[in-house]
UniProtKB/TrEMBL annotation:
BAAT/Acyl-CoA thioester hydrolase C-terminal domain span: 233-451
Protein name: Acyl-CoA thioesterase/BAAT N-terminal domain-containing protein
GO MF term (any one): fatty acyl-CoA hydrolase activity
Signal peptide per UniProt: 1-22
Membrane-crossing segments per the record: none
InterPro entries from the UniProt entry: AB_hydrolase_fold, Acyl-CoA_thioEstase_long-chain, BAAT_C, Thio_Ohase/aa_AcTrfase, Thio_Ohase/BAAT_N
Keywords: Signal
Coiled-coil positions: none
Active site: S261 (charge relay system), D373 (charge relay system), H407 (charge relay system)
């Protein structure tokens, strides 16, 4: 019996001397992580060659309003050290995404059935399972759109606008943000992020249409603003500049303008007329002024923009209303079609009069477009803008053109891109290409503003 006891005791000592390995999911040490900043995601303490499945889940507010659960998964094989680094290692075939991409599980998430009643946003939950489905580890990655010291306030005289900046007395360069045809205050969500980068930011709504809901048409969010996209005054930016110059946080000698979609059209037009703008970022831009639209507006008669009360020349659409009429029959809406047809039908003289003369913009210009954009041909139009500026020596232009990307390129590459074409409205691009264009464009845009305004 004593021999048996000694043997058991020795075995216990041996067990204590062998390290006990627990599988781990390693993410960023310091959280929350500012959206768009570098991510870390790795698996550790696996058996060499072990096959595991990593699942990710988060809640997201969709374009139509409801909050839905999104999920993704990928299988990996551990290396000789029992590790998987998602930055450098591609998943095995059959998962939600392919190719080495640390953001792959984030953008490849797919929408699940059922609305989430009590959502928690900006939190990604990871679960690790072995080949038999046994849970091995779990972890969480929390993202944020703003650093804790970002302060916001509503500026007087600008309906729905948001001003954001970091606390502190030092004056800093400013950015004016212009949204697209969605209108309302949607552009406000981007202001805290850019304030976190060190800018004083004015998110400036300029148009607020009525919106559709299952219960019928809803009144405009901001009734003080135009409800039709017609003759939007470019000189509204002069008012914004004057207000920024009065703010103690702002260095009004360094103001940039960043616009997306119709906001990019707005920003580029402004750059040809307002020499105080020190830089322009045009995300999915147009190289011409387009026709305006709205309730009761006769097709082909009105411009989107005006300068000092004078409507600008424009390229008209063709069959715009017919494109939307098909939605009643469940046919997809591709807004690019009436724009392409309108441009093809326009005379060279019409197009030249409507062209935005970006060669007159002395400030640096950033351009980001996608060739598969189904709202308008932003890839080709961004190229045309860059080519025109290249004819003038000394002009600084940064162009990013993505062959397989669509219209939604204003993100950071950390949100789901799989649902951009799920509804009747088609925006274009593959999920992988859209996510890659977002991530690359976001990094380049940060560098552009740092070099241009700082």
């Amino acid at each position: 019996m004593n021999v048996l006891r000694r043997a058991l005791f020795a075995a216990g000592l041996l067990a204590l001397s062998v390290p006990v390995c627990a599988q781990r999911i390693d993410t960023n040490t310091h959280q929350p992580v500012l959206a768009g900043e570098p991510l870390q995601l790795a698996l550790a303490d696996l058996q060499p060659g072990q096959t595991v499945t990593l699942r990710a889940e988060r809640t997201v507010r969709t374009f139509s309003g409801p909050v839905r659960r999104f999920m993704s998964e990928a299988r990996f094989q551990a290396d000789a050290q029992g590790r998987v680094d998602l930055t450098a290692q591609a998943p095995l075939p059959g998962g939600s995404y392919a190719g080495a991409d640390v953001r792959g599980l984030l953008w490849s998430m797919r929408m699940q059935d059922g609305e989430v009643k009590e959502p928690v946003f900006n939190r990604i939950q990871f679960q690790l399972h072995d080949a038999e489905g046994k849970p091995l580890a779990q972890a969480e990655l929390r993202l944020t759109q703003a650093l804790p010291d970002v302060q916001t306030r509503k500026p007087a005289g600008f309906p729905g606008a948001l001003f954001a900046h970091r606390a502190g007395a030092a004056k800093r360069p400013a950015l004016i943000l212009l949204g697209g045809s969605e209108g309302g205050s949607a552009i406000n969500r981007d202001a805290p992020f850019w304030a976190s980068q060190g800018y004083a930011v004015l998110a400036l709504p300029y148009y607020s249409p009525r919106s559709w809901s299952p219960s019928g048409m809803q009144p405009p969010e901001l009734p003080e603003l135009p409800a039709n996209f017609v003759d939007i005054p470019i000189e509204r930016l002069e008012q914004a500049r004057a207000w920024l110059a009065e703010q103690p946080e702002v260095d009004a000698t360094r103001i940039g303008v960043q616009g997306t979609s119709k906001g990019a059209e707005f920003a580029l037009i402004a750059g040809t007329r307002l020499p105080w703008i020190k830089g322009i970022a045009a995300i999915v831009p147009s190289d011409v002024v387009w026709e305006g639209w709205g309730e009761g507006v006769e097709p082909g008669k009105r411009s989107s923009f005006a300068w000092q009360g004078q409507a600008l020349d424009f390229v008209p659409y063709k069959d715009f209303q017919q494109e939307f009429a098909g939605a009643a029959l469940g046919e997809p809406i591709v807004i690019r079609r009436p724009l392409d047809k309108g441009r093809a039908a326009a005379t060279p003289a019409q197009i030249e009069k409507a062209r935005i003369p970006v060669e007159r913009i002395a400030a640096p210009v950033f351009l980001l477009g996608g060739d598969d954009d189904q709202v308008w041909d932003s890839g080709r139009m961004a190229q045309a803008l860059a080519d025109r500026r290249a004819q003038v020596p000394g002009l600084k232009t940064m162009l990013l053109r993505h062959a397989e990307a669509g219209h939604f390129l204003g993100g950071t590459g950390t949100g789901p891109t799989t649902h951009y074409n799920d509804g009747l409205m088609k925006n274009g691009g593959t999920p992988a290409a859209n996510a890659r264009a977002q991530a690359e464009g976001h990094a380049a845009l940060k560098a552009f503003w740092a070099a241009t305004l700082n």
